[in-house]
C-alpha cells in the first residue's frame, strides 16, 4: 500500500516537473528578449536641433525625376503602400552584400557607383537610398543604427541599419527594413524600432509583416532581435553633400534606463554622441520651420474610396477621328496646329492650346450658346459673347482632338449637388497622353493643369493630393495663377465625377440629357439623381476606377 502511494506521488511529481519545464521552455521560446525601460516623462537631455530635407530640394527633385519615383507610386493609395513599393524597388533592383563598399555617401552617388560593383549594396547603403527616396516624395525619413548590447565584443560590421519614416497620415515614426523589404506590424499597426523590441519580448504572436505583396507571417525576429538594444540616429538628416559615414557628424544614441552608456564602435568620436534615455527626444516628429511638413492649404476635404481592381468595361465610348471633316475645319479655320509648332512634349502642347482657349474671352456664366460645339462657340465669341466653364471645356476638348489627342469633357460635382442652387457643377477637360499612359486634368477657365511634382494628375488624383495636402502639389500654367486661389475655388467640386460615353464634337450638344453618362461615386455615398431640378437620365453609376478611366486606345468606336 505504501509502495503504491509513493509510486503515485512520484508520478505526480513527474507531471508537475514536466509542466513546469514546458512552461519555462515556452516562456523562453516566446520571449528571448527582456523588456527595456525608457524615460517617458518628457525630459530632454539633448538640446541640439535636427536637420531635414524639404521635398522640393533640388537634389531630391533630381532623384525623384531620375528614378521616376512619382510614377512608381502614383497608384498607391496610402503612404504605407508607397513605402512598401519603394522598399521593394530597392530590394529587387540592387543585390545585397555584407562586404564594405568604399563608395560615395549620398544616395545618388551610391546608386551610380554601385553599377561598377554589380549593383550590390550593404544594409547601410540600402537604408540611405530608401531614406532619400522617401524624403523625395515628402515622407520624412532617417537612417537608424541598431546596436547589440555586447557591441564592444563584436566586429564593427555587426550593427544593422534600418530606416524610420514619418508618414503624415500615420502621425508617428515607423520602421522599415530595406534588406528584407519588411514593415513590421503589431496587431496590424506599423511600429517603430523600440516598439518592435517590446513586441518581440512580450507578444511576438501579435507581429506580422507588411510588404509590397501584402501581409504575411513575421519570420525574421530571430535575425533582428539581437540588434534591438541601442538605437542611434543622426542629427543631420539631409542628403546632398552629407557625409553619411563622417565620424564627426553628431548623433543621438538612445540607451535603456539602468544600462551603461556603450563604448562606441566604428572609431566614432565620443564627443559627437549625444546620449539620451528619453523616447520623446528620440521620437520627436520631424520639424520644418517649426511645423510638421505638409501643405499649408486650409481646405476641408473628404477621403474618397474607389474600387481599384481592374475590370473589362462593357461600356462603349465614342471618340473623334483626327481626319473628321469637322475637326479639320476647326483646325484650319483657327490655325490650331500653329499653337504647338514649338512644343517639345505632349504636355507642352496641351498647355499651349489651353492657354489660347483661356484667352479667347473672359469668363461669364450668364450666356448659353445655340450649340455647344467648338466652332459655334468661337464664332459667337468673335462677336463679343462670353461664356462659362462648360464652353471653355468644349472648345479645348475640340481643339485637342483636332490635333490628334483624345479628350473629353468632365463634370465636377460637389457632395451637395442635389440641393446646391448656385453653380452645382464645374466643368473641365481630361486629355489622354500616351507618354504618361493616363488621363490628364486641364481647366481652361483657370488655365491650369495640376501636377504632383513633375507628373500631371487626373481629376481623382488631384482630389487625393489635395485631400492629403501634399506639398508636392503645384499648378502648371502659362498664366499667373496661385495654388491657394485655385484649390480654394475647385475643392468643393471634387466629389462626384461625370463623363460622357459619346465624346464627338460635330453637332454634339454637350448638355444633351439623352447622352449616356458615367458618374464615379465614392464608396458609401448616395448616387445623385437630380441636379438643379433636372432628373438625371441614362447615368451609369460606378465606384470602379477602371470603368471611369478607360484606355481610349483600347476602347474606341
Kindly list the characteristics that best describe this protein.
about 550 residues; alpha+beta; 6-stranded mixed beta sheet; 16 helices
Distance separating the two termini: 99 Å
What would you report as the Rg, rounded to the nearest angstrom? 30 Å
Helices and strands: which structural class? alpha+beta
Helicity level, as a percent range?
25-40%
- Average of pLDDT: 81
Strand count:
23
Q: What low-confidence regions span 5 or more consecutive residues with pLDDT below 50?
A: 16-31, 241-248, 289-297, 507-514
Number of helices: 16
Could you give the order of strands across the largest sheet?
5-4-3-10-11-12
Main beta sheet strand tally, sense and closure: 6 strands, mixed
Which strand-content bin applies to the residues? 15-25%
The backbone outline, from C-alpha atoms, is elongated
Amino acid at each position: 500500500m505504501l509502495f503504491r502511494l509513493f509510486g503515485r506521488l512520484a508520478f505526480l511529481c513527474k507531471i508537475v516537473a514536466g509542466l513546469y519545464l514546458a512552461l519555462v521552455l515556452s516562456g523562453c521560446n516566446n520571449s528571448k528578449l527582456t523588456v527595456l525601460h525608457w524615460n517617458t516623462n518628457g525630459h530632454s537631455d539633448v538640446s541640439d536641433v535636427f536637420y531635414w530635407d524639404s521635398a522640393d530640394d533640388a537634389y531630391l527633385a533630381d532623384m525623384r525625376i531620375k528614378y521616376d519615383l512619382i510614377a512608381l507610386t502614383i497608384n498607391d493609395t496610402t503612404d504605407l503602400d508607397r513605402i512598401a513599393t519603394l522598399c521593394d524597388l530597392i530590394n529587387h533592383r540592387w543585390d545585397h552584400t555584407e562586404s564594405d563598399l568604399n563608395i560615395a555617401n549620398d544616395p545618388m552617388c551610391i546608386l551610380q557607383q554601385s553599377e561598377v560593383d554589380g549593383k550590390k549594396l550593404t544594409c547601410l547603403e540600402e537604408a540611405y537610398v530608401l531614406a532619400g527616396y522617401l524624403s523625395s516624395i515628402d515622407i520624412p525619413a532617417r537612417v537608424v543604427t541598431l546596436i547589440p548590447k555586447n557591441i564592444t565584443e563584436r566586429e564593427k560590421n555587426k550593427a544593422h541599419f534600418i530606416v524610420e519614416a514619418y508618414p503624415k497620415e500615420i502621425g508617428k515614426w515607423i520602421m522599415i527594413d530595406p534588406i528584407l523589404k519588411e514593415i513590421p506590424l503589431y496587431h496590424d499597426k506599423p511600429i517603430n524600432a523600440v516598439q518592435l523590441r517590446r513586441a518581440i519580448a512580450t507578444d511576438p504572436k501579435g507581429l506580422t509583416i507588411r510588404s509590397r505583396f501584402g501581409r504575411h507571417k513575421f519570420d525574421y525576429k530571430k535575425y533582428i532581435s539581437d540588434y534591438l538594444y541601442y538605437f542611434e540616429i543622426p542629427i543631420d538628416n539631409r542628403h546632398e553633400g552629407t557625409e553619411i559615414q563622417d565620424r564627426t557628424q553628431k548623433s543621438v544614441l538612445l540607451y535603456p534606463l539602468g544600462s551603461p552608456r556603450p563604448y562606441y564602435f566604428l572609431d566614432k568620436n565620443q564627443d559627437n554622441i549625444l546620449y539620451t534615455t528619453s523616447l520623446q527626444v528620440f521620437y520627436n516628429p520631424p520639424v520644418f520651420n517649426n511645423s510638421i511638413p505638409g501643405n499649408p492649404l486650409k481646405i476641408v476635404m473628404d477621403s474618397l474610396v474607389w474600387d481599384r481592381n481592374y475590370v473589362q468595361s462593357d461600356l462603349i465610348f465614342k471618340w473623334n477621328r483626327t481626319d473628321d471633316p469637322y475637326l479639320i475645319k476647326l483646325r484650319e479655320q483657327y490655325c490650331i496646329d500653329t499653337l504647338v509648332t514649338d512644343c517639345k512634349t505632349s504636355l507642352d502642347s496641351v498647355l499651349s492650346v489651353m492657354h489660347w482657349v483661356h484667352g479667347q474671352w473672359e469668363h461669364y456664366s450668364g450666356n448659353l450658346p445655340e450649340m455647344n460645339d467648338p466652332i459655334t462657340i468661337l464664332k459667337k465669341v468673335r462677336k463679343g459673347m462670353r461664356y462659362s466653364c462648360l464652353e471653355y471645356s468644349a472648345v479645348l476638348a475640340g481643339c485637342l482632338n483636332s490635333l490628334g489627342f483624345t479628350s473629353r469633357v468632365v463634370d465636377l460635382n460637389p457632395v451637395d449637388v442635389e440641393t446646391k442652387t448656385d453653380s452645382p457643377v464645374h466643368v473641365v477637360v481630361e486629355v489622354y497622353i500616351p507618354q504618361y499612359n493616363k488621363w490628364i486634368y486641364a481647366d481652361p477657365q483657370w488655365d491650369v493643369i495640376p501636377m504632383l511634382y513633375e507628373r500631371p494628375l487626373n481629376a481623382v488624383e488631384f482630389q487625393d493630393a489635395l485631400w492629403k495636402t501634399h506639398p508636392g502639389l503645384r499648378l502648371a500654367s502659362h498664366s499667373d495663377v496661385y495654388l491657394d486661389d485655385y484649390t480654394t475655388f475647385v475643392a468643393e467640386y471634387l466629389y462626384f465625377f461625370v463623363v460622357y460615353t459619346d465624346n464627338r464634337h460635330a453637332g454634339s450638344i454637350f448638355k444633351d440629357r439623352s447622352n449616356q453618362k458615367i458618374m464615379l461615386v465614392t464608396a458609401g455615398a448616395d448616387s445623385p439623381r437630380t441636379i438643379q431640378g433636372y432628373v438625371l437620365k441614362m447615368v451609369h453609376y460606378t465606384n470602379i476606377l477602371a470603368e471611369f478611366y478607360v484606355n481610349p486606345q483600347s476602347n474606341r468606336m
